[in-house]
C-alpha cells in the first residue's frame, strides 16, 4: 500500500491513534517543505499554526463519525506562506493507523489570490504614479525656466562653456517632463469604447513590430478566427499588446542577432473564468510568447511595478501601462517565464 502512495502526486499523511505522523509520501515532503525525518512523530496540530482545525477532524475520524470528509482549508505555517488546500480525511479500519489525510493544493484559490494581488497592486500603482507625477511636474517648469533665464544672463566671454551646463539642465528637465507625461497618459486620455476585433489589434502590433525589427525576428500567428468582436478601447489595447511585444523583442536582442528570435501571437477563448471574484462564461485568452532568456528571477514578481526594468536603459513603464489598460477592460495580465520561453497572458472578459 505504502509503495503505491509514494507514487501519488497529492500529499498523503498517515497518523497513529495519538494523532502523530507515522508516514508522509514524497509529495507531502515537497508540499510541507520538510523531510519525513522532520515530520515523523509530530502531532498533527503542531504542523500548522491553526492545526487545531485538523486535529478536531482527526478526533471525529477516530470515533468513526464519518468514513471520509472533504473540506477546503488555509493552513498557516510559521515563517512560510499559507497553504490553500483541499483536504480529504479518511477513517481507516486499523487500530494502529486509524486516519489518512490527503492534501491537494487548491489551484483555483491560489489563482484568485494572485489575481486579487495584481488588481490591488494595479490600484496602488495608479495612485503612486499619479501622485508622484504631479509632485515631479510642479517644480520641473520652475527648474527649466530658471535655467533659461540664467542662460540669458551669462556673460558673453564665458557664454560657450557655461551654456553647456544650462543646456544639460534644460534637456534633463525636458526628459523628466516626457517621463511624467507618459506616467500620466492613461489617466488623462478618455476611455473610448467601440467594437473591437482582437485580430485587428494583433495585426496592427505585428506590422509595427516588423517595421521596428525588420530582420532576425519572426512573428508567428496562431489565431482562433472564431473569436467574436467585443466592446473596448482599440487604441489602448494596441498600446498594451505593443508594450508587451516590444519588451519581448528587446529581451531577444541576442537571438535577433543570431537570426532565430521568435514571437508568437496567439488568440483563444477561455471558458468559466473568474476575474476579480466575478465569474465570466467566456473571456479572451491572449498570449504573447517569446523564446528569449526569460525574466530575471529577482524581478519576476515585480515586473508590473512602475520603474522596474530588467533591461539597462529601460524606463520600467511599458508593462505597468499595459496592465493599467487591460484592467480598464476588467481584465488582467499574467506572466509565466523560464529560460527559452516567456508567456504573457491577457485575459479580458467577453459579454
From TrEMBL:
Database matches in PANTHER family: SENSOR HISTIDINE KINASE, SENSORY HISTIDINE KINASE_PHOSPHATASE NTRB
Q: Which SUPFAM superfamilies match?
A: ATPase domain of HSP90 chaperone/DNA topoisomerase II/histidine kinase, Homodimeric domain of signal transducing histidine kinase, PYP-like sensor domain (PAS domain)
**Which UniProt keywords are listed?**
ATP-binding, Kinase, Nitrogen fixation, Nucleotide-binding, Phosphoprotein, Transferase, Two-component regulatory system
Q: What is its EC number?
A: 2.7.13.3
Protein name (Swiss-Prot/TrEMBL): Sensory histidine kinase/phosphatase NtrB
Which species is the source of this protein? Noviherbaspirillum humi
Q: Which residues form the Histidine kinase domain?
A: 131-351
Q: Span of the secretion signal?
A: none
- What does this chain do? Member of the two-component regulatory system NtrB/NtrC, which controls expression of the nitrogen-regulated (ntr) genes in response to nitrogen limitation. Under conditions of nitrogen limitation, NtrB autophosphorylates and transfers the phosphoryl group to NtrC. In the presence of nitrogen, acts as a phosphatase that dephosphorylates and inactivates NtrC.
Q: Does the keyword ATP-binding apply?
A: yes
Enumerate the catalysed reactions. Answer: ATP + protein L-histidine = ADP + protein N-phospho-L-histidine
Q: One GO molecular-function annotation for this sequence? A: ATP binding
Q: Which residues form the PAS domain?
A: 1-32
Q: What NCBIfam families does UniProt report for this protein, alphabetically?
A: PRK11073.1 (NF008293)
